[in-house]
Queue: 3 jobs
Job 1
Amino acid sequence: MTDNRWTLDPAVDEFLAGMTMSKELIEKLKAEHEPIEAAAPQPGDSAPDFTAERLSGSGQRSGEQLQLSSVRSRPVALQFGSYTCPVWRAQIDRFNEIHEELQDQFQFLTVYTREAHPEDGWKVEINNDQDVVYDQPTTLDERAHIAGTCLTRHGIRMPLLLDGMDDSITRAYAGSPERLYLIDETGIVRHRSVNGPFRMKVIEAWYEALKEYATVRS
């Protein structure tokens, strides 16, 4: 909980320490995000149901459609992210550790969102340094290709779901560029992180919420 690092990658943290944003960009992002944030579920609210395609373990489109409400025999540990978000990808090892420890108690799901920093949008230099260079996908196949590359390069162990090209799941949860939820077996949100990009201490707060809920259930 006291860990104030952004990520587990010193190169990403160094880049973030020197990153600046113009007042105009901050105001633009705030205006775009505020109505989405206001409509997203808070703790105590019902979690919006959704159906999304799951990638295979090798990062390929599987055609398998997974519905949130169909996997609630266990509480759901839900997160959002994309490969071009340097913060999220540099936190994946910690997410894998949490999944490894708690996968018997929770259904972990990761929703793959639209790219946070594509080359034809808001580019960031660290992505070029780390060979994560992609335009914003225009088809689900293109999104699946990037998500699959991320899955295999980083060994993502959690089920990875593709948001549709309308980004409806991400919008419903205000999940862009990254966010964490705990949803109980009745579909009620029990924990919601701040909207990302966030520091490691936010992940640890989610982890503690998961452990506490698992203890209550046992």
Job 2
Amino acid sequence: MSDDSQRDPGDELRDMLRELLSGNAEIDPRRLAGAAGLPDDPALIAQMISQLQGAIQQGGDGVNWSIALDQAKAISASTSATVTPADREATQQVLGVAALWLGEVTSIAELTSEPHLLTREQWVEATMPVWTQLAEPVATSIADALTDVIRDQAPEELAGMLANAGQLMRNIGGTLFAMQLGHVVGQLSTEVVSGGDIGIPLLTSGDSSDHQAAVLPQNIAAFGEGLDIPADQVQLYLAVRELAHARLFRHAKWLRLQLISAITDYARGIHIDTEPLQDLAADLDPSNPEQLREALASGALIPPKTDAQLAALGRLETILALIEGWVDTVTARATTRLPSSTAIAEMVRRRRAAGGPAESAFATLVGLELRPRRLREAAAMWQKVTDAVGAEERDALWAHPDVVPTSEDIDRPEALIERLTRAEPELDDIDRAIEDLLGDEDGDRPRED
């Protein structure tokens, strides 16, 4: 029997892919880079080829998320500026003033760690663990579905080859998804101004219960360009927002886990629609890998949301709106000394409502938008609560998930205020007797020797 007849069919597929990646096949590497969402940059194309070659050799299961990190760092590093000593000194002064102003309008305590000043590349490194946590359920679904559909759609003469190459196909599919995610996060690093800018807690210290604050001086400067507003006012306003966001998550220690769990539970409910994937596999032109990129980037493979997902999404949007609305309210009160605070606040709202290109790409890639739809209503509710009961009682609503306002409270803040301001009922004789008894049990009775 010849050596060729004894070869593992999976080896044949590996050889075919190696030929493709080495440039000895018909696919132009630049078009392959386009399929991964990369610009026509020789260095990035070379890195992509290396990563795909690594996927061919990879023997383990799951997505190699280090590829996403490498991809994002390559994009962010190309535009990242260092934080100079002058930047650091100026920003620390701004953060100090922001902390003082914030302390005047909220009862929530200050952070226990100093805010970080990050470059774009440092932001990528610090936040990638959360991005991969959010994206992993969808990446796994896409890799599984792609493997199954390509195997089902393969011509009979290739069936033996693909039957033993499922793991290889999963690795390649996962690598393409990781590249796409890395591209999105790398682009986000050029847009975000702080750790809480996306609305979810991306930064924690070694103790995951302690939330960190961070600002990106380079991006804050870019945010203020063309606004016709003094740069120091923009810096101070954005610093107050970031500290408010970080303080809230440190104070309400349950909030981060609930929010991240809600997002990942939603993502785990996503199942890839096999019908468009089957059509894609049947019509796939090997010389045009951009077909696969377009299918991933358009969100066409993610089917309409189920009723359960819509309910979960509603809960998620409510908590995001409550968080952002609270941050907006306390920031507005803390920055009344800034002449341009109203104008900056409106720019922040418009920017959040529109979202950037990279954020839109994440929404289509994972099927989830992270921007709250009911932000203005939630902010109005927090403002009315503040006016009615003060900052301390307002902030006490974050003490436990059972007392945090609901979607109905956003719709009818008057009902929430009525509950908060309702007078304590007068005690009758039986209630007084029970209260006296409980007081005695707590140590009010004279001690007996």
Job 3
Amino acid sequence: MKDILGTALLDYLHGNYSEDIVTETSISEPDVLPLPYLFRSFEKMPKMEQLALHRCEGNVLDVGCGAGSHSLYLQGKGVDVMAIDASAGAVAVARERGVRQVLHSTFLDLSGVKFDTILLLMNGTGIFETVAQVPQYLEQLHSLLSENGSVLIDSSDLRYMYDETHDGGIWVPADRYYGELEFTMEYKGQTTAHFPWLYLDQRLLAELCEENGFNFEILYESDHYEYLAKLTLK
């Protein structure tokens, strides 16, 4: 897949910012992802992200670090943090911005190390891709988490994107879970292939965690179906 995210982040960092990333999903119109937002300071982060960063303890794994904003904040507080991203460009940007431990890696490829906190923010359930793959990712989280550690992960319930039924339910697709989306990203005339991205409602994520060896706790809920959860080993 084209490294559109990494290319855009590198452009912004090096003063070549002229446009933003445009995202589109299988259930929504094109939307703009402003590049400055990916370089935001702690003060400009949503309350949910700030809470997650305050909850980090011990050595931390920042999954999908992007431009490294979360890692830089933690590093500035004296936290031992390792950042990873599947985008080579993002890794280069995070390193150039000053993240000391940053690795070009997918989450499933990481092994041989334990963390006290694993951080998955900006719809952290997205990397699971589909509901069917969640157990595989939970197994990987289990292998990387220290005995008394915690996973801090956020997501959204996309029920607000669907029409309501007369009895208060929602009309959902018959062939898939309603939070399973297909995404594309476009930047400066280049477009990625479609890729899967998963939004999990908190009820389903809680069930999957319980079935796969994790305790589940909600730390924060927004007014717009977003939530932050804490997972710990049973």
